[in-house]
Specification:
Layout: H1 4-17, E1 20-27, E2 32-39, H2 45-58, E3 67-71, H3 82-87, E4 92-97, E5 102-110, E6 114-123, E7 132-141, E8 145-150
């Protein structure tokens, strides 16, 4: 059976040398291999094809049959690796905490332990008739969140 480690070892040099990064590699029991690659400016389909060909040429289908899918993470898919957070600074994200609370706002900063989301909401200040926009910063630790994804 083909393993996740075999795939990662096989493609890691090619992916990083081209300026991209591996988001996820999954090998299902039915030998369905799914590889997710991302980059700071996205991933062209041609690069996904070249990674797919590298994997296909490295395994003998006569010995071990497999299904292969190489792609970039789709819009709206949860972030899986730290570098995805860095890539999305300044973009709108939706955070779902472990307690089930949702927060939407701009991903402002990212550190080794967590990140900050700026949420803009309308608040009625005391003594005023009209609501005003106010920016609230929410700090999250990575272990406190269930998922974070970019929203369009």
């Amino acid at each position: 059976m083909i393993t996740k480690d075999q795939i990662v070892t096989l493609i890691a040099d090619k992916v990083t040398s081209e300026g991209y990064f591996i988001v996820d590699v999954a090998v299902k029991p039915s030998n369905r291999i799914m590889v997710l690659i991302d980059g700071d400016n996205g991933v062209p389909i041609g690069f996904c094809v070249s990674v797919s060909r590298l994997i296909e040429q490295s395994f003998d289908r006569e010995t071990e049959d497999f299904e292969l899918e190489v792609s970039s993470p789709g819009i709206g898919q949860p972030f899986k690796v730290y570098r995805q957070y860095l890539k999305n600074i300044g973009r709108e994200v939706e955070v779902l905490t472990s307690e089930g609370l949702k927060t939407k706002g701009e991903l402002a900063t990212v550190s080794e332990t967590g990140f900050v989301v700026k949420e803009t909401i309308k608040v009625k200040p005391e003594g005023k008739k009209k609501k005003e926009l106010q920016v609230i910063e929410h700090s999250f630790k990575f272990e406190e969140v269930k998922s974070v994804k970019e929203i369009i």
